[in-house]
Specification:
This protein is an alpha+beta fold. It has helices at residues 3-33, 40-44, 131-142; strands spanning 37-38, 54-60, 66-67, 73-79, 84-90, 102-109, 115-122. It folds into 2 domains: 1-34; 37-142, OB fold (Dihydrolipoamide Acetyltransferase, E2P). The chain contains 3 helices and 7 strands.
């Protein structure tokens, strides 16, 4: 093999190795920052990891909202029609938050299976339902597991 070909081969090998390392590092960084969505049924069945940051969502069950009068702490229950999960949150709720409406919460599950939220996202108008919440509700209703959740289940202005 002449010197020119040897230099090109070394350059190609180094380039492929560099790209491989860059892709590996990028995928590792992304894996650590992904927040997977879990429905209340998946959370209740133990599919969601305890102590890792996840997203959970559903409809806020009517009559489940309770506020601590001396702080910003609130508790409420979310449901997808098949299961219910208690949510604990310490902070200011979005203006559009109310019972019977769809929400998405970002937080962690504790050892008791309750969702401790760091952030609450509420719907933005009367026709909006987050896709993940709508899908979980539709799947629960299709399976014949509807159970006492009221509220609109339209998605994106249908």
């Amino acid at each position: 093999m002449n010197a020119m070909r040897k230099q090109r081969l070394i350059l190609v090998v180094l380039l492929v190795a560099g790209v491989g390392i860059a892709v590996t590092l990028a995928l590792f960084a992304l894996r650590e920052n992904i927040n997977h969505y879990y429905s209340p049924l998946q959370i209740a069945q133990g599919e969601a990891p305890v102590g890792k940051k996840i997203r959970g969502g559903g409809l806020v069950v009517q009559g489940s909202f309770k506020r601590d009068p001396s702080s910003l702490k609130v508790t409420f229950t979310i449901s997808d029609g098949a299961a219910q999960v208690n949510v604990y949150y310490d902070g200011i709720l979005p203006d559009l938050f109310k019972e019977g409406q769809g929400i998405i919460a970002l937080g962690q599950l504790n050892q008791q299976g309750d969702f401790v939220a760091e952030e609450i996202l509420a719907k933005h108008d009367e026709n909006y339902m987050p896709r993940e919440v709508q899908k979980a509700i539709d799947e629960a209703h299709a399976g014949g597991k509807a159970g006492g959740v009221t509220g609109k289940t339209q998605e994106y202005g249908e």
